[in-house]
Task: inverse folding
């Protein structure tokens, strides 16, 4: 009986299917008790409830992640391939470096074994995907895009300003549309931030929503 990963793989040309199956079988052999599933619409192996490896096929390459692209011991291994933050690409017109992929899987397994909490792939309400290990729900991509949008309240702590940015609050007018209770539900904002916001609002003749 076909499962979701079978269906995913069979949606590609035969040559690509063979490469995807090679990765699949390699992980199954390296970590027999890993759980196979489709997550974020791509094949995923989970181990001890943590993401061990995601892999996906594209027009010209296969991507694997999380990949330790910033780890010194992998720098020479990754030099021949295109990488981005946490991702490595293997061209479809080349043989897969199975030894390297096995090394990545072993590294990921060791991280899961040695750490209680590993970065997991998440998706924010705006559709951005990112890795994070903490319980903080703020999206780093949203924060980056917000930039200095919240410089209008420089007296607030950095976590509080990030929380406002993540909620799309970039000026006093948008802040005044929220109640104090609603603001306090934002992760990163404590009660000590409220008087500072009240003062800033009052200076512009504004106040929190009743």
Result:
């Amino acid at each position: 009986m076909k499962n979701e990963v079978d269906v995913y793989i069979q949606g590609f040309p035969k040559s690509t299917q063979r490469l995807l199956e090679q990765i699949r079988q390699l992980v199954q052999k390296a970590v027999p008790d890993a759980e196979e599933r489709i997550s974020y619409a791509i094949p995923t192996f989970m181990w001890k409830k943590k993401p061990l490896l995601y892999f996906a096929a594209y027009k010209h390459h296969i991507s694997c992640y999380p990949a330790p692209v910033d780890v010194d011991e992998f720098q020479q291994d990754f030099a021949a391939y295109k990488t981005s933050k946490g991702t490595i690409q293997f061209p479809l017109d080349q043989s897969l470096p199975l030894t390297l992929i096995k090394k990545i899987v072993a590294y990921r397994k060791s991280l899961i074994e040695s750490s209680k909490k590993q970065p997991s792939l998440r998706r924010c309400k705006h559709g951005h995907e990112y890795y994070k290990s903490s319980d903080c729900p703020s999206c780093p991509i949203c924060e980056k895009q917000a930039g200095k949008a919240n410089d209008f309240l420089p007296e607030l702590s950095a976590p509080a300003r990030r929380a406002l940015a993540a909620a799309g609050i970039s000026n006093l007018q948008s802040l005044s549309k929220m109640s104090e209770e609603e603001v306090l539900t934002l992760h990163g904002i404590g009660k000590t931030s409220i008087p500072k916001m009240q003062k800033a609002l009052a200076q512009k003749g504004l106040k929190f929503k009743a």
Notes: The chain has two domains: 4-115, 142-203. The domain at 4-115 is CATH 3.90.1150.200 (Aspartate Aminotransferase, domain 1). The two ends are 58 Å apart (CA to CA).
